[in-house]
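the two lines:
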Amino acid sequence: MQLQLQYFLLLGAALFCIGIYGLITSRNAVRVLMSIELLLNAVNINFMGFSNFLDPQEIKGQVFTVFVITVAAAEAAVGLAIVLSIYRNRDTVDMEQFNLLKW
Amino acid sequence: MDLAQGVQIVSFALLSLMMIAAALGVVLLTNIVYSAFLLGGVFISIAGLYILLNADFVAAAQVLIYVGAVNVLILFAIMLVNKREDFTPLSSAGLRKGATALVCAGLFVLLSTMVLATPWSASTASVPTTESSIVRIGQHFFTDFLLPFELASVLLLIAMVGAIILARREYLPEVLQTPNVQQQVLTLPERPRELVPAVSDSSTLTSTPGDRNK
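prediction for all of em together
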């Protein structure tokens, strides 16, 4: 018995589902951004699992993971800046009241 | 099962348990500061999983970037919007959460069925590379992934400029335009109407210092 690819894929699927749940149900805008980080990390676990088990010589999955980490850092910076800007205008972080662009 | 495989299995179980528990805490806890610290726990656990997958460089990058940068950024954002606000309860909140949980559980069942039913061809044993993964990743970055690598740096520059422009204050407060030496007050730049006194002269005050935090 040793570590299989399926374990990591199941772990990534579980983390992805937790992130989806948090993304939909949370009211706080910062928590929504945290859920998006969970989603990106679930995808990263899948990349790393495939990179280690299916492509151990040319580890291209690790290269993709580094790119995903880069994009996640940029997304977090811009997303939190947007949250700060909305908080300054609307004086709340409730997702249900962010309806400026809603018909 | 020899010792190395046993250690691998045990550490995988511990790390995945930590990760799932911390992720559930991130989503379900009501205090968002606890959620932010648990998010750091999720990132640390994922870095440990990367080490189990023979990826030392990406594990170090995960700790440095996620725990060091993204998590600290989220904590700063929480401190900046630190307002105790009770969200007005929705009428269909329970129904919404139940439906979402059902959909997520169904998605997990679907994904796990797919994962377990698919015969992964080369999933028997991982052949560890003889050379270091850092060397291999560096070769990829500067040969066949050179264009995405440079584009990632441009993307980071764009994100930095965009974040500064978005989070910058829109106007200058009036205190800076008409400086008054006699009644000098310290104002928060984006909230000039709530005054914080620099001197303890209570006759000129319009509000008390700790008024906003209550």
